[in-house]
Structure formats: structure tokens, C-alpha cells
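Minutes, methods subgroup
Present: GH (chair), OT, SY

1. OT presented the first of two proteins processed in the latest run. Sequence and C-alpha cells recorded below as shown on screen.
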Amino acid sequence: MRNKIYAYLIATIGTILSALSFSLFISPLKIVVGGTAGFAVLINGLLNIDTTTIVTITYILMILLNIIFYGLKETKKLLFCSILYPIFIKLFENLPNIVNLDYSNKLLHCICSAVLYGAGCGLIFKNGFVGGGLDVLKKIISDKAKITIGNATFIVDAILILSGGFIFGINSILYAIIILYVSSNITDRIVLGVSNKKMFYIMTKKQEEVSDIIKNKLKCGVTEIDATGGYTKEKYHVLMTVISTREYVKLKKYIEEIDKDAFYIITDSYHTHNKEITN
């Protein structure tokens, strides 16, 4: 129960941060960033309808649409944030007048908006909640058009951002790209964490020498994985190890000194469960 309460609390904080990003920066700056926030700014620019009203109506419609396509059970996953977000948008709608920010430095405010929005989304996703809003439409397009959710998101957001460029000018598109890039990276960092380890997959004919270097010089564990070449059908072992980021340059140097023809892949490692692999 304590963990569940904690998850709801963190998701609430994430929703507040996302709402602050919209109310303090995106809406006043008239930047169509994609998603529900961008859609609200776009409709406000076209029809002069209050952005808070647009956000509320959009979230309600998307909840109903989700029920139609996926049923009530699946809709429960997005109800929490779908209810809270419009409420916080309404609570914060007069905040720009109270805070009285100077919006002359638009780039700085775009970065602030991206940080708040990225952190908010990260906290929501990390705790297993779904944002709702136009994300529902993106999922429906993905399922019905048989395309990835990434492509569906790109299509919807690209249409909104380009439309915003026609209404608010080309600078609006550039600012929107900055916000989306920064916020998506921050979201990934919060969801995945900051990687302080690297994982190596090493294919070499001098397995014993490389393995000895990893175990004796770098003091790391190493695992051998049986593999078969897809083209040659030759069987060999792949060495897998996880080392600290500060040591990975050393391992690269050792591998190239031992076997200049070795093939290896390096990836970020965000979490390891078996301590013997990393110690």
C-alpha cells in the first residue's frame, strides 16, 4: 500500500510539473509543441478559445475514444492523469500574471519549459501511469494503420508543429523542436536513469587472453555466450562483461592490442541485477 501511495504521489508531482510547463511557458509563448498542449495552443490561435477549455474537452473526448476502442479496463490506466492534468491546468491558468515572467528571452523559457515537461513525463511514465490526451489518438493510429507508436507520434506531432508554423511563424517550429528534443532526453534519463556502466559484447579468436585481462586487470566478471555465425554457421563464444564507464576506454585499448581483428559492441548499462557480473 505504501508503494502504491508513493507511486500516485510521484505521478501527481509529474502531472503538476507538466501543467506548470504548459501554463507558465508553452501557452503564453504560443508554441505548438505537439500533443494536447500543442493542440490547445493551435486551436486557441485559430478560434481564440481558451486553452484551458480546449485541454479539458480534449482529455474528456480522448477518454471516451479510449473506452470505445480499448474498453473500460484499459481506460482505467489513463484516468488518473487524464483527470488531474486539466484540473492543474485550470488552477495554474492565472499563474503567469502572478509570477510576472519576462518572456523576452524566448529560448531560455523554452528550455525551462522542456525541463519541466520532460521531468513531469518521466515521473509519470516511471511509475507506470499513462498521460492520456492525444496519446490515445496516437495509439489508435498506430494500431489501425499498423505502424509503430513512434511513427504515429511523429505524424501527429509533425502535423501540429507545421500547422503552428503557419499561424505563429517559422520560429515557432524551431522552438518546438528544441522543447521536444530536450524534454524527450530528460524523460529518458528519468525513466532509464543515468548510465554509469558500459556493457561489452566481444567476439575474438583470443578469448582466453581478453577474458584474463577483464578478470585480472579490470577486476570485472565475464560471461561466455554460445553463438553461431548467421552466414558462416561457425560456432564461437561471445564474451559479455559490464564495466564502469571510466574503465571502458581501457578495455577498448586492451582488446585492440590483443586482437586487432576483434569485433565488439558497446552499449549503455542502466541496471544490473547479478553483482558477480559487475564486481
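2. SY then presented the second protein from the same run.
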Amino acid sequence: MPHCVIVAVDGPAGSGKSSVCRGTAAALGLRYLDTGAMYRAMTCAVIDAGIDTSDADAVAAFAGTTAITSGTDPLAPTIAVNGVDVAGPIRSESVTGAVSPVSAVPAVRERLVALQRDHVALAREAGVGIVVEGRDIGTVVLPDADLKVYLTADPAVRAARRAAETGTRAVAATEAALKARDAYDSSRTASPLTQADDAVVVDTTEMTLQQVIDHVCDLVNERREQHV
């Protein structure tokens, strides 16, 4: 394996993907891509344009004219729509509630998957490698990734983490929302959330963030050593 290792990380919401992937990429000197932020950015743009997020045809047409730009520095990742920073707006409740149906539109996934693969190609060309997180990275976006990791955790733990992240005390409601989104994303026709057959499963329920980062770093280094 060359130095430019390609790491695909999938898992349900609240499993710790973003924090783990950023930490791993920073520790190993790799680039980082949050594909979930890309889908949120598209959803944010759809909402701002006044388009019904359940109108798949309208969303598909709009997606083809919208530029999503992602920064890949793990220490300062960025996300923009048509040149406008949307890092804050994409975390709003309205976007969170609509991101699943927008993400399920095949034309949206086709456009964003192409952008995601472009980022990976650029990382390879630069010889630095990249950690890519999402829900269909190991199965659809990067089926030939050097390492595939599937992060998971107990639903109650995932809900508590997400509630802490968003500053809400409604943990039970958060857990119900996460379960509903997981069910939706796992059953959608276009690129459903699923574990790749060759992914290494990492259950983060009883682990600290640093322990998970260290473990994933070890997995990456082991895979590198196997290909020296």
C-alpha cells in the first residue's frame, strides 16, 4: 500500500464518525472528507430555495445547478454552497429533519458521489491519502478503499452523544429521531446505510473518543504494514 492510504468510515448517526475521522486524519497526516456535511449542504440549499424536499424531481433538477465545496483539512474542515459558508446552517433542526429524503434522491447521490471520488483522486495524486466518512462509503463510494471501518454504538449512547453535541436535554426524543433516520437510510433504494462485508466493526459504546481514534489509527498502520 502506498503512503496515500484511503480509509472509508461508515456508521449510523451518533456513532462518533466525525470526531473519530477528524482525529484519525489529523494524527496520520491525512485529508478528511465529511460526506454527510455535503448532503446537509445540499438539503440546506434546497430549503433556502423554497423547494419541497419531498419533491424528488424538483430536488434532482436543483441539485444539478448547485455547487457544493468541501475543505479537507481535518483541523479546519469547511463546507460551502455556491461559495457561501454553511457550516452553521447545515446543523439546524430543519436540515436535520429533511436530509434523509433529499439524500435518497438518486440524482443527488450521483452528483455528490462524483464529487467525493474527485476528492479521493486529488488526495491520491498528492500522495497524502484521505479519511472519508459517511453511510455508503465502503459499499458504494469507495468499494476498493484500503481500509473500511464501520463505527457503531448502543442507540441510547448515540442519542446521549448527539444530545450533548446539539445542546438539547431531550435525549429520549433524540434517540427516537436517530432510530427513525437509521431505519429510513437503511431501507432507501439509493445507496442504503449498510455495513460492507470486509469492514472492521468498531463498537464505540464503552470507548472514549481518544481510544477509538487510537484504535482506528492502529488499524490504518496495520494495513499499511501489510502492504509495505
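Chair's summary of item 2: The chain has a mean pLDDT of 90.
Next meeting: continue with the remaining queue.
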